[in-house]
Design goal:
The complex is a heterodimer. Chain A is α/β, with parallel strands linked by helices. Chain A has three domains: 170 residues, Thiamin diphosphate (ThDP)-binding fold, Pyr/PP domains (Rossmann fold, 3-Layer(aba) Sandwich), CATH 3.40.50; 156 residues, TPP-binding domain (Rossmann fold, 3-Layer(aba) Sandwich); 172 residues, Thiamin diphosphate (ThDP)-binding fold, Pyr/PP domains (Rossmann fold, 3-Layer(aba) Sandwich). In chain A, strands 3-2-4-5-7-6 form a six-stranded parallel beta sheet, with helices on both faces. In chain B, strands 1, 2, 3, 4 and 5 form a five-stranded antiparallel beta sheet that branches. Classes of the chains: A alpha/beta, B alpha+beta. Chains A and B meet through loops of A and helix 2, helix 3 and helix 7 of B.
């Protein structure tokens, strides 16, 4: 007779089978049998106790984004589950593989408004790739295997398992399950030879081709395939926010960041190229601006693994369905080597213009208060441009992504589609577990830090080596900038009184320092990076600094503002 | 496209205007979307959410087991342009347990719908035009008692609505219900079977590896 174990232990064995080593979680009533089973698996499953369930999800996201593995969370029912909603929605829009396991009341109590009962399957249905309520211990192995298969395959995303208490305590003759096929779900669509051939022909025929690099390149581990493709035909490229580290910043064909606060050249040239080649990106409105004027002059090829992205926002001439690791390699084989010298040189004047009008002032100021841009660039360089960049959301994010430099793949962790303030600190915690050998630098504002500041407790307990660079301007800076630009400087509830962050860090036993003067910046950064473990570096930055250039929302992609006219 | 080529299986009694009124609204053609999914609970709400989120109203919805074991079939009608129909299709197919979604205009499918009318028997006895209308519309009287009579009408939406309009005028309706459209494709190719065969072949390949 086979060994009989509880559903909770079946979950532990299933997680081990899936290769899970790190779990971010928080116990509670309806998940107690699982935490009891976890107590015996501490040698195999490293459970990180966060301080709020939202932190667990963002930590799992940070972990997944840098490691390429599935992030895993375990939380309780009711409020424990609803606290994960923001992280699940964030992971959905940013295609981050994650499995969230929530406790649930027993089956006999379902639908009775029992204590800490919430319709988790109903709530998470539109924001998860898949969800499932485990009602019997017999279903644990299958559900967990299916959950991990769905989360990591195809276009990755979050999966929610709603684990009823009776299924946790129920006994089962455990047999490992392996789901690697679902009839109604094709995560690896076969690329069409015709589309590949046609794409190659269109690229060969193009005089002014331009590539948009999205996170799909990182998700498909196609960074090398991308480089070979770009280099063979000498095609210039711009990167989306989440695709920034798919191509090294200083690669000669990397023309910079796309989007509302991206670089001037790639945005302007989007409307001048004759062929736009989008790879693993979804034409977000923050990238396209006004769709009616977006790349109308160009033919468009779209490489993506998710067919629902084709023609969603931008009509494309040729969709190329499939994993870009396969499709890019196939197209690279067929295209002819090319040069495109004059087209590439055409980016230069825009780069110079942006440097003179914006970048130089942002990263090499000679007087006045500290600027966010200079802090970001100095930290990046002090870490040899090899660190992982984690940002919160807002000006810290835009300055972070504009001025941090990348030499390694999977180096940017930021909340793109959802724009979740409070994402940064827990995501940085997760990143330190995902790539313990790398330096993790978090840029966070005074607003976002306070949204998940409780996770300093997790950092304290775990000793996570997060380098927290607090860009403190006593404002909710990004909203303030918009108020200045579009709401006649009416600063409605954006100025913020701040606590003494050094004292807060001290209370958590985290070394901290505040920089006010420019001449102290280099040394302070050095000390931060040389100090083992966590560190909080508070930078007192200019209060009313603006992120530039900027394409105002809904404006044409090539009409970027380089300055704000008062 | 409005259904111009529909060889309408009608009694000929419904007027053409009514038919056109039904096949286009606000310039949007009526689309019939046939969806096939695995028989897993919770899918209906996932499917309807795809419409809600894109501000498309569902006109009729029918769900039942299909001829393929374990597969459920949804027949959904809505007014939307072809681009929206395409987006709805893709977004539904994106749900893990949805096998296939396809959209059709009326000329591409054989359509049927059933309605039940509960009528007042005294009203019928008082006004002989009522039974005439029922006969003209080829409807069936399936139950009669001194209080009420039940009339069943199977046909196109337009025919049912035409009967409904006539009976409303005659002030005899106690209750009325339509089943919602059901449809089968006129195509000689069974797309779902092809899809399932293709997927089974892929499964076999995975098993071999």
């Amino acid at each position: 007779m086979k060994e009989r174990i509880t559903g909770a232990e079946a979950l532990m064995r299933s997680l081990v089978n899936e290769g899970v080593k790190t779990i971010f979680g928080y116990p509670g009533g309806a998940i107690m049998p699982v935490f009891d089973a976890l107590y015996d698996y501490r040698d195999r499953l490293n459970h990180i106790l966060v301080r709020h369930e939202q932190g667990a999800t963002h930590a799992a996201q940070g972990f997944a984004r840098v490691s390429g593995e599935v992030g895993c969370c375990i939380v309780t029912s009711g409020p424990g589950a609803t606290n994960t909603i923001t992280g699940i929605a964030d992971a959905m829009i940013d295609s981050t593989p994650m499995v969230v396991i929530c406790g649930q009341v027993g089956v006999s109590m379902l639908g009775t408004d029992a204590f800490q009962e919430v319709d988790v399957v109903g709530i998470t249905s539109p924001i998860s790739k898949w969800n499932f309520q485990i009602r019997r211990a017999e279903d644990v192995a299958w559900a967990v295997s299916r959950a991990f298969y769905i989360a990591k395959s195809g276009r990755p995303g979050p999966v929610v398992l709603d684990f009823a208490k009776n299924a946790q305590t129920g006994m089962v003759e455990y047999e490992p399950a392996k789901v690697d096929f679902i009839r109604s779900y094709d995560p690896d669509p076969q690329p069409s030879d015709e589309a590949i051939k046609l794409a190659a022909r269109m690229i060969d025929d193009s005089v002014k081709p331009f590539v948009l690099v999205g996170q799909g390149v990182e998700l498909g581990n196609a960074q090398n395939e991308l480089r070979e493709f770009l280099e063979k035909a000498q095609i210039p490229a711009g990167c989306t926010l989440l695709g920034l580290s798919a191509l090294p910043t200083d690669h000669p064909l990397n023309m910079g960041m796309l989007g509302m606060h991206g670089n001037l050249g790639p945005n302007v040239m989007t409307n001048q190229c004759d062929l736009l080649i989008a790879i693993g990106m979804r034409f977000d409105d923050r990238v396209t601006g006004n769709l009616n004027t977006y790349a109308k002059q160009a033919k468009i090829i779209h490489f993506d693994i998710d067919p629902s992205e084709f023609d969603k926002n931008v009509k494309v001439d040729l969709p190329v369905l499939g994993n870009c690791k396969t499709t890019l390699a196939a197209v690279s084989k067929l295209i002819s080597p090319a040069k495109h010298n004059s087209w590439i040189q055409g980016f230069q004047p825009y780069a110079e213009k942006e440097y003179n009008k914006v970048i130089e002032k942002a990263i090499h100021p000679t007087q006045g208060p500290l600027l966010m841009g200079e802090v970001v660039r100095k930290v990046s360089e002090a870490a040899n441009n090899e660190a992982v960049l984690v940002t919160d959301v807002g000006q810290n994010q835009m300055f972070g992504c504009r001025y941090f430099k990348f030499t390694k793949p999977r180096s940017v962790v930021t909340s793109g589609g959802c724009g979740t303030m409070g994402f940064g600190l827990p995501a940085a915690i997760g990143a330190t577990f995902g790539v313990p050998e790398r330096t993790v630098c978090l840029f966070v504002g005074d607003g976002g830090l306070q949204m998940t500041i409780q996770e300093l407790g997790t950092i304290m307990e775990q000793g996570c080596p997060v380098k927290i660079i607090l860009l403190n301007n006593n404002f909710l800076g990004n909203v303030r900038q918009w108020q200045a630009m579009f709401f006649n400087h009416r600063y409605s509830f954006t100025p913020m009184a701040n606590p003494d962050y050094e004292k807060i860090a001290e209370a958590y036993g985290i070394p901290a320092h505040t920089v006010i003067d420019r001449q102290d910046l280099d040394d302070s950064i050095r000390v931060m990076l040389d100090t083992p473990g966590p560190y909080l570096l508070q930078c007192a930055v200019m209060e009313e600094d603006n992120v530039l250039p900027m394409t105002p929302p809904g404006a044409d992609v090539d009409k970027m503002m380089l300055e704000i006219k008062e | 496209m409005p259904n111009q080529n529909n060889d309408c299986q009608t009694c000929g009694k419904c007027d053409k205007n009514a038919r056109e009124k039904n096949s286009v609204r606000n310039g949007m053609p009526l689309h019939t979307i046939l969806v096939y999914s695995e028989n897993i609970s919770g899918l209906l709400s996932q499917i309807t959410a795809v419409f809600t989120r894109r501000q498309v109203n569902i006109e009729t919805l029918n769900v039942c087991a299909s001829s393929t074991p374990g597969v459920h079939k949804y027949t959904i009608t809505c007014y939307c342009d072809t681009e929206m129909a395409e987006m709805l299709k893709k977004q539904m197919e994106k749900r893990i347990d949805v096998l296939q979604a396809n959209y059709f205009t009326d000329d591409q499918i054989y359509i049927q719908e059933t309605a039940l009318f509960k009528l007042s028997t005294p009203a019928i006895l008082e006004n002989n035009r009522i039974s005439k209308v029922i006969r003209i519309h080829d409807a069936k009287i399936v139950e009669v008692n001194p209080t009420y009579s039940i009339v069943e009408k199977t046909g196109l939406t337009e025919e049912i609505l035409s009967l409904f309009d006539s009976l409303t005028e005659l002030e005899c309706i106690l209750q009325f219900v339509r089943s919602g459209r059901i449809a089968v494709t006129k195509s000689r190719i069974e797309k779902l079977d092809e899809y399932i065969q293709l997927r089974e072949k892929k499964h076999a390949q995975i098993m071999e590896q």
